[in-house]
Recover the amino acids of this structure.
């Protein structure tokens, strides 16, 4: 990983995208550090393999968007800090997986940073957090439950901006945003 200093053009763009996903009621996310993630050649090759497979399935099904680029999109995944011992925190840039629709290594992603933070527990944890900004090959997307006909789609959209990608190779981290959330300002009511 490479730290992007304040004022770097890529950092400004990522900070804007990151900030645009927060509702005013969620508090303010303060970016502390931003890293560009350098994926290995093997990870990039696996990502491109997932794209090729999604494109082939999309073409066979007559899905033009999927056939064009595998239905690539940008998504977010929140990573709470973990104790490293000695009181220090570690935030890693690896994608967290879950078990969904028979896929032992599915990946929960979100359309916005605020939703990703909430999906990881949101206000229930304090301190530093990490947010991965990822390229995702969504492929053919099933709306609703992830449990029905798992072989016929590449990811599932259960709603509320969440997308469960059934093949972790189809998720490639690009940036790691290390941040803290400031609580929202209390609304003061004035009596007349």
């Amino acid at each position: 990983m490479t730290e992007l200093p304040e004022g770097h053009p890529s950092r400004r763009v990522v900070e804007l995208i990151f900030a645009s996903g927060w509702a005013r009621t969620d508090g303010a996310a303060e970016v502390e550090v931003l890293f560009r993630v350098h994926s290995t050649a093997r990870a990039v090759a696996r990502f491109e393999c997932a794209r090729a497979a999604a494109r082939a399935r999309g073409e066979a099904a007559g899905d033009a968007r999927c056939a064009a680029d595998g239905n690539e999109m940008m998504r977010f995944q929140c990573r709470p800090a973990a104790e490293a011992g000695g009181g220090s925190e570690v935030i890693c840039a690896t994608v967290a997986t879950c078990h969904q629709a028979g896929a032992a290594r599915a990946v929960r992603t979100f359309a916005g940073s605020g939703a990703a933070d909430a999906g990881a527990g949101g206000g229930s944890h304090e301190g530093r957090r990490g947010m991965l900004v990822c390229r995702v090959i969504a492929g053919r997307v099933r709306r609703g439950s992830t449990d029905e006909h798992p072989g016929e789609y590449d990811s599932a959209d259960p709603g509320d901006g969440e997308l469960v990608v059934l093949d972790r190779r189809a998720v490639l981290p690009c940036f790691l945003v290390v941040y803290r959330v400031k609580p929202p300002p209390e609304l003061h009511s004035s009596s007349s």
Notes: The longest strand covers residues 171-182. The longest helix spans residues 41-61.
